[in-house]
Design a protein that fits this description.
Distance between the termini: 121 Å
Largest sheet: 8 strands, mixed
Structural class: alpha+beta
Strand content: 15-25%
Number of strands: 13
Radius of gyration: 37 Å
Helix content: 55-70%
Number of helices: 14
Length: about 450
């Protein structure tokens, strides 16, 4: 068939323009030698085409390899630049948090000093009014806690839970801020966030819970995030960027830390009453009455906030890198954040990174814990009771830090800046810690007199 078609083509090329070419069934007047020559030419041309195709394919492969190499190089440069940029932003955020902490504490100490040294009852009352104006707030407080600490640390070590904590922060903090929340402090796996209105705190909680459910899909048990939350509303003392205490804070912390189950949000009656007046929350959240909660010897009405799942859309943000937030970053060493970031991006290196974490951030020390207790029986009815308590905490913490350093101890900075009546300090020996405790107890007894 190939020979006959070749014969037809050869005859057609040699014929005049006005003569039609022969069909394959015709027998053209062509010698076998001509056919053989033309066939050889076609084979040669075919071989050249194949050779050219091979060269083109080779060039294409070479071009692909070059492009891939350039892509890897550019990607590495971009990754290096991204890492450098993240480090710069992290250090900036850390410095802001540290400066805010120092300024807020110094401002509080200055205000308390003016109040104590007031020359007259009128000026003392004015100073007390200024303190309350600057530090007393009426707002909603959301407290979140993570579940599974004991099980996860026992099965996989503390590094796994620390990474989950960073992932929780990366997911929840931006969501809470999108609803007007302000992160005040972080204690271990707890977040303390204030909101201008109860319904915003409840909506933020519902979206965090929905996002955690979506995040947990198709993840193994020890990689999942489970949150326990509470929302309360009322007065509290707020040291911006440092701490909050008094008022509704103890109740909110106990509800979120001890009472709420995993994947549950508990709210008080006051929060429910305000939320029912907000049209924006209607149809999004259902409030179910829970078991009564006893706080301070009184029964507190508690409700379980249940989201309407088909209307609460989860928004899982990137949990692949630590969150940038001054309140969080101010208490984190840069090396720790870098290791957590690497652990998030490279799960296969978990064991190696955990070994680095243990080597760098684990030490064998004696821990001195001082919990301050105050007798408020004499302060009932005293309008300045809250200021007296606050002043005692700030003063005794300064004394405790001085004594710890005298006995070669080191107060934990993150707890020292808190207004909570608790002090943590590290010592190389138990004898030094015991001596510091005895000296501090003597100071407390002297102050009582």
């Amino acid at each position: 068939r190939t020979i006959r078609i070749s014969q037809c083509l050869l005859c057609w090329q040699s014929m005049p323009e006005d003569q039609a070419p022969p069909t394959p069934n015709e027998s053209p007047n062509v010698t076998y030698a001509q056919v053989h020559e033309f066939t050889a030419q076609l084979q040669a041309m075919h071989a050249q085409i194949l050779a050219l195709q091979g060269e083109v394919e080779h060039l294409r492969n070479a071009q692909t390899n070059v492009v891939q190499a350039l892509t890897v190089s550019v990607g590495k440069v971009q990754d290096d630049r991204s890492a450098a940029f993240f480090n710069q932003v992290f250090n900036f955020s850390r410095n802001i948090g540290c400066m805010q902490s120092v300024l807020s504490i110094d401002n509080l100490r200055h205000e308390l000093r003016q109040w104590k040294l007031a020359a007259s009852p009128e000026s003392r009352a004015l100073s007390a009014k200024n303190i309350r104006h600057n530090f007393l707030r009426s707002c909603s407080l959301l407290v979140s806690d993570m579940s599974g600490f004991t099980r996860i640390t026992k099965e996989e070590g503390i590094g796994q839970f620390l990474m989950l904590t960073k992932q929780m922060q990366a997911m929840c903090v931006p969501l809470m801020e999108s609803f007007g929340g302000t992160l005040v402090k972080v204690e271990a796996d707890n977040l303390f966030v204030i909101f201008p209105s109860p319904h915003l705190a409840v909506l933020a909680s519902m979206h965090c819970q929905a996002s955690a459910r979506k995040y947990n899909q198709e993840r193994r048990r020890n990689d999942q995030l489970h949150l326990s939350m509470s929302v309360v509303h009322g007065d509290l003392f707020l040291i911006p960027g440092v701490d909050l205490f008094g008022g509704v804070v103890p109740m909110g912390f106990e509800l979120g830390e001890d009472v709420a189950d995993k994947d549950e949000t508990l709210v008080t009656e006051e929060v429910v009453a305000v939320c029912k007046k907000q049209a924006v929350i209607d149809g999004l959240v259902v409030f179910e009455q829970a078991e009564p909660f006893v706080h301070g010897g009184k029964n507190v009405g508690v409700y379980r906030a249940v989201p309407v799942l088909e209307r609460i859309l989860p928004s899982v943000t990137s949990c692949s890198m630590p969150v940038l937030n001054p309140q969080i970053n101010s208490e984190e060493p840069a090396e720790y954040v870098a290791l957590m970031d690497e652990r998030m991006h490279h799960p296969s290196k978990a064991a190696q990174i955990d070994a680095q974490l243990k080597k760098r951030f684990t030490e064998r020390s004696t821990v001195l814990v001082i919990d301050l207790h105050f007798d408020d029986s004499e302060s009932k009815g005293n309008e300045e009771a809250d200021l007296l308590l606050l002043d005692s905490i700030v003063r005794l913490k300064s004394e405790a830090a001085r004594l710890c350093e005298k006995h070669c101890g080191q107060p934990v900075a993150s707890m020292q800046t808190r207004a909570s009546p608790c002090i943590f300090a590290l010592f190389s020996t138990s004898a030094a810690a015991f001596s510091a405790a005895v000296d501090f107890a003597a100071i407390c007894c002297a102050s009582d007199k």
